[in-house]
Amino acid sequence: MSGEGAAGAWPAGGKNLANFGDRLDRAARDKKSVAVVGIDPTLALMPPALAERAASGPDGLYSALSDFCLGIVLAVADLVPAVKPNLAFFEAFGLPGLSVYQSLCLAAANQGLLVIGDVKRGDIGSTAAAYAAGLLDRPRPEPDRPPGLGGRERLQRDTGALLGPHDALTLNPYLGSDSVQPFLERGCGRGQGFFVLVKTSNPSSAELQDLRLDGGGTVAERAAGLARDWGRDKIGASGLSAVGAVVGATHPAELGRFRELMPDSPFLVPGYGAQGGSAAAAAGAFRADGSGAVVNASRSVIQAWKREGRPDDWRGAARRAVQAMNRDLASALRAAGKGDWL
Amino acid sequence: MSGEGAAGAWPAGGKNLANFGDRLDRAARDKKSVAVVGIDPTLALMPPALAERAASGPDGLYSALSDFCLGIVLAVADLVPAVKPNLAFFEAFGLPGLSVYQSLCLAAANQGLLVIGDVKRGDIGSTAAAYAAGLLDRPRPEPDRPPGLGGRERLQRDTGALLGPHDALTLNPYLGSDSVQPFLERGCGRGQGFFVLVKTSNPSSAELQDLRLDGGGTVAERAAGLARDWGRDKIGASGLSAVGAVVGATHPAELGRFRELMPDSPFLVPGYGAQGGSAAAAAGAFRADGSGAVVNASRSVIQAWKREGRPDDWRGAARRAVQAMNRDLASALRAAGKGDWL
């Protein structure tokens, strides 16, 4: 299916680390799930008792935000292949929020989940290299950690100087190849992957992404071509590349077309659930054998306690929401003739 | 010049806070400078003694990075209207780096400098709102701060939960209006501004930004049109909007064309110095009266000690580099008939 760079040709560097496309494929098959839980906390999405504690000051914020995010991770860990925390929501809580981001990534990794850092980075080459270091290197425990530190300080010291660990990141293509290559160079050789924003799920994505080009196609289709090129020599045994694409479930008519344009790219499909995308729409993102895509839901999972009217059982509500999502996606894939393995 | 939304019409909300376009214009005239110093620290750009200390562990990292960044701020504070720290370089140093980012922003604000946070954000509406909170709200000192905390911990507590303070941010337009509006809504009413990435300074910016559209123009020109629309009702007494654009000095032929397309937009012009853009090229970004643009240099200033061979006097070298840049820009603007006020 893939031509050059097919199974076995990569990674070349000696270390037999799996390709991210393979890792994602294996994780989905292990869990029998193609769902990803987006962890995007706000005070409004948290159950009242936690939100109240979070608003009480920095220590309350740190402890409540930790409890909520780690609680969601533990509630869904056996049900999905990956979680996708969006760094923006943690940055909104400042440095305590970023500490929670680290502890969330570590906890998810310890649970065997892939961690997709939704950071949407895109900057000039020298800056991209700086971001790549901060976001792709593995946090290091400090050997000289003094005993007795607690809470926020302890976590910062435990996780060292960097954000993550991340198995994959989202990247913005507006600045072109030299903004992306430093990430690929640093991460792909050790099993990390990337999802390039091709066609996003938000209403105004049309303003630039849908513009028609002189000579045919759209801006988003050209971004798809770039992303495919970037991933061409990074295709694993599963036939999936380490370089994938973000294509929103809110554009069902286009999902199949992007799948044709990017046959080897894993798709990260946002927009399911709160944003209005359906499982039937998302099914178009998958390859004929039902591989090659994961579907993200954020708000519909982490605030499922609201729909159920059970703020006391927000963990259970999140779990039930993911189980329902798994059933919904499996059924839609079967209906599309793609889901017999789910 | 501006039609609707001209001088006096904005801000409407009662509080008489200046428009960011006016604030930038006034700061440039006060300092008689259109230069901005980009603060993008890496170990390789730091003088050896500081780099060594930074590599010695988290406490050394925090103290050396602080000393370097705050030293640059103090060295150039009376020479330029603004500094532009790029958050990526601080994120690369993890949480200690982000603490330094905060202390740098605070120190610059205390010196009367405008702080342009080069964060290049772009995400869907709900996420943009989260970023806007984290990046635009003013860090709050904690009233209950315990005495005796030092270094990293003290700064975190002093600055509260958020990153900044920022007078302006850079934004990526690939996701369109709904990714930008939450920032504008939160910031413009209190004098904050935005620079939308229109045409970036890096070589591969051509891959998407220069694509020609069916019906004429390029993707970057369409981004320019969007940015102008976003800023149309946010034009201050100076005739400059709170919403500006990033247009690289590495594309001299295009600078004048973007200036025509965006007559009311302040331009942030990267690419001068280490990236190869000249002052003569940058002059095309300015309006006929020499207003409306600031030119950024990062590496050529903060590592000027290398060019001078004086690692012991890195502050003085940075200062001399900025003085030379000011002379260079003033001379280029005068040569273009725009710089009599400089």
CATH topology of chain A: TIM Barrel
Name the CATH superfamily assignment of chain A.
Aldolase class I
Number of strands of chain A: 8
Euclidean distance between termini CA atoms of chain A: 23 Å
Q: Which architecture of chain A per CATH? A: Alpha-Beta Barrel
CATH class group of chain A: Alpha Beta
Whole-number mean pLDDT of chain A:
87
Quaternary structure classification: homodimer
Structure description:
2 copies of one chain form a homodimer. Chain A is α/β, with parallel strands linked by helices. Chain A has one domain (20-335): TIM Barrel, CATH 3.20.20.70. In chain A, 45% of the residues lie in helices and 12% in strands. Chain A is built from 15 helices and 8 strands. An 8-stranded parallel β-barrel of chain A has the order 1-2-3-4-5-6-7-8, surrounded by 8 helices. In chain A, helix 3 (58-76) packs across helix 15 (314-335). Chain A is globular, with a radius of gyration of 19 Å. Chain A starts with 19 loop residues before the first helix and ends in a 7-residue tail after the last helix. Mean pLDDT of chain A is 87; it is low at 1-16 and 140-161. The interface between A and B is large, with 72 and 72 residues.
